[in-house]
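TASK: fixed-backbone design
INPUT:
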């Protein structure tokens, strides 16, 4: 089963393949003949509607959304996939979303399946909540450090210690009423 990034890539490839087999573009709507014609004059669609207004709207829509539009959209979506790709590398965050960025604690999105940009893109290709739930979620092998802790645990402990150091109050500033019986002031 593919993950979200791969699923979107497959959808794009399928639409590109379908567009490539269509008659040449641009397509034009001939309202008098009620047909959409390809650039080589071949009939692409025979338009029948309940009213002349609906006929014209349907024909113009089909002509305006020919294969060239699909191919442009696919090219734009591939650029989005390139930005919102796996972070990669051998680190613990290799499946994180590179495009969502990172802060001093690591990548903001731990897995590309959780990337809101990719989820919105997939929605445009018709993914359902059920399909999204069944997508593969490959996980990295968390490397153990010599102390038996994962790299993530080591980083987490370091950040907590650094934050605690910044938050600590000098002992000389503690009011006498809060000092216990075994109080020792630090120099």
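OUTPUT:
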């Amino acid at each position: 089963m593919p993950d979200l990034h791969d699923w979107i890539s497959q959808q794009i490839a399928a639409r590109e393949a379908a567009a490539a087999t269509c008659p040449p573009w641009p397509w034009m709507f001939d309202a008098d003949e009620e047909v959409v014609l390809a650039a080589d004059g071949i009939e692409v669609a025979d338009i029948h509607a309940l009213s002349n207004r609906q006929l014209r709207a349907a024909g113009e829509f089909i002509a305006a959304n020919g294969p060239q539009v699909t191919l442009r959209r696919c090219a734009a979506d591939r650029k989005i996939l390139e930005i919102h790709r796996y972070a990669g590398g051998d680190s613990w965050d290799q499946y994180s979303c590179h495009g969502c960025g990172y802060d001093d604690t690591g990548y903001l999105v731990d897995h590309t399946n959780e990337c809101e940009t990719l989820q919105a893109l997939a929605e445009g290709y018709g993914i359902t909540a059920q399909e999204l739930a069944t997508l593969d979620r490959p996980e990295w092998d968390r490397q153990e450090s010599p102390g038996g802790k994962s790299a993530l645990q080591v980083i987490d402990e370091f950040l907590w210690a650094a934050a605690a150091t910044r938050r600590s109050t000098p002992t000389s500033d503690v009011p006498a009423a809060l000092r216990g019986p075994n109080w020792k002031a630090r120099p």
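COMMENT: Confidence is low (pLDDT under 50) at residues 142-146.
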